[in-house]
C-alpha cells in the first residue's frame, strides 16, 4: 500500500471510531425522563433543588476522578493538559472555580449551603453511581478513563437547553447562578475535542478502541443511574 492509500484507510478507520463514540449519545442523560421533564418546565422546585443538591456529589468528585486519570497516565503532555481540568474545578483559591460556581448555583435555587456540603440530601443511588465513575477511572486503562469523559461531546447542547429552560420556566431561580453552565458551554467543547484527540492518538488497537467505546457507555450509565435515583427520591413531589 502506498502512503496516500494508507493515510486514507487510517482516516476512514478514525472516522468510523468517532462515529461509534458519537453514536453512544442515545444513552446520554439528555434523554432521561427526569431531564426531559426539567427542560420542559414540568419539575417542581423540590425536584430542581434535588437535582442541584445531588449533582454536587458529582461535581465534588470530578477533581478526584481527574487526579486518578493523571495518576494512571504515563504521557507528560497529556498529564499536563489533564491537570487543567482538575485546576478548573478546584480553582486557584477558595470561592473561585467550578466547584465554587456550582455552590453559587445551589444558593440560586434556594438550597442551604451547609446542607449541600454535609451531603445529607445525596441519595444512595447517586453516591454509588458517582463512586463507580471514580473507581472506574482509578482502575481502567488511562485511555478508557479519558474516553469516559467524552459525554462532554454531548453536554454543551444539553447545557444550553438547560440555561434556556431555567430562565423560561423557573423564574424563581436567581439567574446569576446559571454562570456555571454558561462557562461550561464554552469550556466543555474544548475539553471534549482534546479528549477525542487523545483517544484517537493513543487507542492504537481495535481492542483499546472497543474499550474506549465501552467506557463511554459505562459513563452514560453512571449519569443515567444518577437521574434514576434522583427521579425516584423526588417522585412524590411531581
Ligand atoms: O451539565 C451537564 O449535563 C454536564 C454533563 C457532564 C457530562 O456529560 O459528564 C459534565 C458536566 N456537565 C460538567 O459540568 C463537567 O464539568 C463535566 C466533567 C465531566 C467529566 O466527565 O470529566 N463531565 C462533565
From TrEMBL:
One Pfam family name from the record? TENA_THI-4
Which superkingdom is the protein from?
Bacteria
Q: Which UniProt keywords apply?
A: Oxidoreductase, PQQ biosynthesis
Residues annotated as signal peptide: none
Against InterPro entries, the record matches this protein to: Haem_Oase-like_multi-hlx, PqqC, PqqC-like, Thiaminase-2/PQQC
Tell me a GO biological process for this protein: pyrroloquinoline quinone biosynthetic process
EC number(s) stated in the UniProt entry for this protein: 1.3.3.11
- What are the residue boundaries of the Thiaminase-2/PQQC domain, all occurrences included? 30-228
Query: Which reactions fall under this protein's catalytic activity?
Result: 6-(2-amino-2-carboxyethyl)-7,8-dioxo-1,2,3,4,7,8-hexahydroquinoline-2,4-dicarboxylate + 3 O2 = pyrroloquinoline quinone + 2 H2O2 + 2 H2O + H(+)
- Tell me the enzyme class: oxidoreductase
Its annotated function is as follows: Ring cyclization and eight-electron oxidation of 3a-(2-amino-2-carboxyethyl)-4,5-dioxo-4,5,6,7,8,9-hexahydroquinoline-7,9-dicarboxylic-acid to PQQ.
Its recorded name reads Pyrroloquinoline-quinone synthase
- Gene designation: pqqC
Amino acid at each position: 500500500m502506498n502512503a496516500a492509500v494508507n493515510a486514507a484507510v487510517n482516516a476512514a478507520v478514525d472516522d468510523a471510531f468517532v462515529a461509534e463514540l458519537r453514536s453512544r449519545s442515545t444513552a446520554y442523560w439528555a434523554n432521561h425522563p427526569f431531564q426531559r421533564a426539567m427542560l420542559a418546565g414540568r419539575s417542581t422546585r423540590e425536584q430542581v433543588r434535588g437535582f442541584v443538591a445531588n449533582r454536587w456529589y458529582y461535581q465534588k468528585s470530578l477533581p478526584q476522578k481527574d487526579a486518578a486519570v493523571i495518576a494512571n497516565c504515563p504521557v507528560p503532555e497529556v498529564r499536563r493538559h489533564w491537570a487543567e481540568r482538575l485546576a478548573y474545578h478546584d480553582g486557584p483559591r477558595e470561592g473561585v472555580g467550578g466547584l465554587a460556581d456550582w455552590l453559587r448555583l445551589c444558593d440560586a435555587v434556594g438550597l442551604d449551603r451547609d446542607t449541600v456540603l454535609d451531603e445529607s440530601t445525596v441519595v444512595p443511588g447517586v453516591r454509588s453511581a458517582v463512586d463507580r465513575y471514580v473507581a472506574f477511572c482509578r482502575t481502567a486503562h488511562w485511555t478508557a478513563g479519558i474516553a469516559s469523559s467524552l459525554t462532554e461531546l454531548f453536554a454543551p447542547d444539553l447545557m444550553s437547553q438547560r440555561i434556556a429552560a431555567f430562565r423560561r420556566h423557573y423564574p424563581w431561580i436567581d439567574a446569576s447562578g446559571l454562570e456555571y453552565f454558561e462557562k461550561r458551554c464554552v469550556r466543555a467543547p474544548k475539553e471534549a475535542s482534546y479528549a477525542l484527540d487523545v483517544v484517537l492518538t493513543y487507542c492504537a488497537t481495535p481492542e483499546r478502541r472497543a474499550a474506549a467505546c465501552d467506557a463511554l457507555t459505562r459513563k452514560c450509565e453512571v449519569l443515567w443511574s444518577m437521574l434514576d435515583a434522583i427521579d425516584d427520591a423526588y417522585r412524590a413531589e411531581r
